[in-house]
């Protein structure tokens, strides 16, 4: 073991063969401001490790012993981290006057090297950084902040694993964050920044004050003018100014409190640099860099950049100078990066919008009747193994598949993940139990009781095998759940094929038989398996990914040439074009599916597709007259074949939501009430699908001025949605916003505001801070303040709502509502009455074009009474 003091940054490294504790040095790997890293050998556990010696210096009011003890405590805190995306710490201890950390030796390269080694796609880069972000989130969960995140502190192993390392600047924080410049005797970087500003004001030019640590531990101040090389200089402890300047957050420059959002800022700088090939903040001197960072002066994107705009918006939020304006946590930023807004835009376009018709009868998941094998009547449980086992009783442990899904849900970090899993568990357990019971009953009806023919046995068993295939495909998707899957998990379970269908022999006999040719039948069966997998993915929210895969599916179906299969594939794709908001493409696919199903006498597909076309044509394409033609065609098939109660319910729901025209409001309300009753009959009273229609009933009642009745139905919708999806689910936000509007109409503004605020929080977290939906809640909040005579309090929310609606809202009446509310708030607050009249005039124009006579009269009356400021 070497004697004397360990080397400082200027001294020679430990030679090969020297020992640090029980670790034998193999060579110096790297050296930085906080110490050295050595490759070493652990003879006790026979493995290669990396040993980092953390430099401990006296000063700043601390003795050498006190400094070592504090560093040791921080190192021990880091050692508590255990996560796949964080370098594993094996051992922490002291050596001479230093603290060492022994950690896994990662065979790979830094992200900086990985980026330079070859051209990387934006998605590859985002995937690597998302993995690193999960490592940071794991640290934050332990109340540890890295404070020096940068590409050189992230490793990509040869196995592709991503690990965050070098927590040398990590600091434990409590709820209030790190205290920044509060360390005794040190000069904060806020003071330095103030000194720089003073120098500039005195005409001394743009200068940088850099703190250079001396070997004795003192801090010498040095002035360097416009020194571009300092842009990458590693700063050691100088007040609270710690980290690499190019990646430091404003609070690090200013010496104020740091917390997990500090890492978020550094992460966003690093990801911005990786995607754009340049850093977001300019400045060839420390002063210029500091000014740009603190003021949030992000450079424009390079002209040749191919980074999607939605990704840039995420990065800009992570780079906001005020930490409160960034994402609430790293996991929220990562979730945003994994959520393409093309998918998010499928969320409700209006508070009145209905959820799209699910393929409740399992389009295209049919299995070949000839593929059925003879089975014993007690074999149901064996068929549910690795799908969704029926629990043995109260308190029974989760099955392996259930445990896998549970872990996957919780790993997404969604606030409602536990509630969503509980909802999924209730639905799937009931479904599996009913499937097993029906399986036994169908078998015994033929083989035990002798009351059912072999032909009916074949038909019913084939239906049950189809349903089992859909259940298996869905649980596979849920086992690898991401945030989007968790959001859609409960609705996906509701889209499983109805088991009641397997008891309806008349309907089963109408099923189109599979092709006679064995080779063709085998190809059809294989493609139907692919359809089942795609349907499960679509229902669980993987819309864009599924659409990319569906083109080849349709091509393969066309090559087989079996008309019912082509119809099933087109119907599935058309339904999910609806979910992604592609009305024209959806209508084209669904119309072709309808006529192919008609040609092959496939009533199941025909009725479901006709019902879907009501929404695709009537709402997405804006052709209500054409949509009514499809509604009549769906009704004709339903009246002939019977059954299909869930399809009938959605047909009633969607026709009512689209509206039957003036004078038909009571008829639309009656249709919605019938739809809710049918859904409750098929799905149960407490199913979230029933809650969606209850919410639509509330809106219909509000339109009729029956607000007290409307409140009862929206409360019911909220109760059902909360129980089924959880109190933080985005579907709940629609009902909360609707309740706020009803409460405002009832003259209960304080209660309304609480409901709107809950909706706002959910939408901001799930859809982002500039989501179009947010304007509903923000406008409602502003109107609640206006009704209480507090116009000044209304301004902030109404200004924000007005910006969102001006940029994103296509509904003229909604734009008019916000403009008029803001006009009244400005006038009553005596702020800018000229602008108030301009906004009111704009609202008048919107109402006139939307032909909303009552609101047009209201704004005309207001303008007549408010002619001058």
Descriptive report:
It is a single chain. The chain is an alpha+beta fold. It is 57% helix and 9% strand. The protein contains 33 helices and 15 strands. The strands form 5 sheets. The protein has a 6-stranded antiparallel β-sheet with strand order 1-2-3-4-6-5, with helices on one face. Strand 3 (35-42) and strand 4 (47-54) form a beta hairpin. Helix 6 (260-276) runs antiparallel to helix 8 (309-318), helix 17 (518-539) packs antiparallel against helix 18 and helix 29 packs parallel to helix 31 (812-828). The longest helix is centred in the middle third of the chain and has 31 residues, at 417-447. The radius of gyration is 32 Å and the shape is globular. It starts with 18 loop residues before the first strand and ends with a helix. Mean pLDDT is 79; it is low at 1-10, 174-243 and 342-375.
> What is the subunit organization of this protein?
single chain
| Poorly predicted runs of 5 or more residues | 1-10, 174-243, 342-375
In angstroms, what is the radius of gyration? 32 Å
Question: How far is it from the N-terminal to the C-terminal residue, by CA?
Answer: 85 Å
**Widest beta sheet: strand line-up:** 1-2-3-4-6-5
The coarse overall form would be globular
Structural class: alpha+beta
How many distinct beta strands?
Answer: 15
Q: Compute the average pLDDT.
A: 79
Please count the helical segments.
33
Strand share of the residues?
5-15%
Described by strand count, sense and barrel closure, the largest sheet is: 6 strands, antiparallel
Indicate the percent of residues in helices: 55-70%
